[in-house]
N-acetylglucosaminylphosphatidylinositol deacetylase
Amino acid sequence: VVTFDAGGVSGHANHISLYTAVRYKGCKLLWVPPWAAAGCRVLVLESVNLCRKYISFLDVLISCLLPRDALFILTEEETEQAKRAMQCHHSQLLWFRRLYLLFSRYLVVNSLRLL
């Protein structure tokens, strides 16, 4: 299971609520087949400071040097696919989300920790 951390990446109340619920219940919150429940793990996406959040691919080096349990570096194709997916939601594509598409490290690199 992958969810947000306590900071909710952007401080969004819904993101923080997801973290709180999963932290409280863990894998019991979700329907997990009995054969998989024992192996269920929760990873949380790390919130980073504002500077790191918007330096895009430059954060790859920083992320590689810092401790974490998992690090996902997206390929150029995966980054473009994520951008196309966001662009499909026109009502959500406000000016600040357009900046997010240009500069966010989360479209390039994601560091996670085990809960």
